[in-house]
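=== RUN LOG ===
request id: a7f3
mode: sequence -> structure
chains: 1
length: 159
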Amino acid sequence: MPELRTALGEAGFSDVRTYVQSGNVVLTSRVAPAKVRAQAEALIAERFGFEVDVIVRTGEDLAEVVARNPLGDVASDPKRYQVGFLEAKPDASAVQRIAELATGGEQVVAVGREVYSWHPAGAARSKLWAKLAANGLGVRATSRNWTTVTTLLEMAQGS
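=== RESULT ===
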């Protein structure tokens, strides 16, 4: 992560900060999110030698994701509550097919370019989670647990 921070800083992004070791980055840029995504993907491929999907959300976007929190009344453990950040809004029929895999109190709600999923028994053996994690919605995506989502928002807000 230190190398990623350095590389992004050298590429012209400012206030580059990372959180944990899974590619969570908060930065400041004046360019559009789509351009940030393209530049970051190209930089990672060139500098580190591998391709990775980069999903970008503005601070405002992230604040909306947290404020929306459609499963907040049932998701009692933030480590078992996931938010999938998608490149584009998923097809409703794909969401319905995946939702049918929910068992044991699991729930899934898609809102725009985010998919919220609650896994009360954990995600390790969840068929629902396995499909979501494997981009079963047909769009590029990345997921973070609720603790990470709220921490990233705090970082974006300068807390």
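=== NOTES ===
The beta strands are 14-19, 24-28, 81-86, 107-111, 114-118, 141-145.
The chain has a mean pLDDT of 93.
=== END ===
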